[in-house]
Amino acid sequence: MKNTASEIVFLIEEDPEDGYVATALGEPIFTQASDMTTLKEMVRDAVRCHFPDEDTRPKVIRLHFVRDEVIAS
């Protein structure tokens, strides 16, 4: 049985093709969507699928946004 985690963290990055990509830290969970509203739904669904037992499912999903920005020197 897995340990109960109080939260799970996802790195959110813009997809060069379109939309956003979410990758969980410490768990093999990955999903993507074309807009942020849909991405949040997809992340919740992916967490529910990965942790089908509510007792082991993290209570909080934290989204950490990563954005690359290039500036001229």
Describe this structure in words.
The model has no long low-confidence stretch (mean pLDDT 93). This protein has one helix spanning 36-50, and strands at residues 7-14, 20-24, 30-33, 60-66. The radius of gyration is 14 Å and the shape is elongated. It has one domain (7-66). It has a 4-stranded mixed β-sheet with strand order 3-2-1-4, with helices on one face. With 73 residues, the chain is of the alpha+beta class. The chain contains 1 helix and 4 strands. It starts with 6 loop residues before the first strand and ends in a 7-residue tail after the last strand. This is 2-oxoisovalerate dehydrogenase E1 subunit beta.
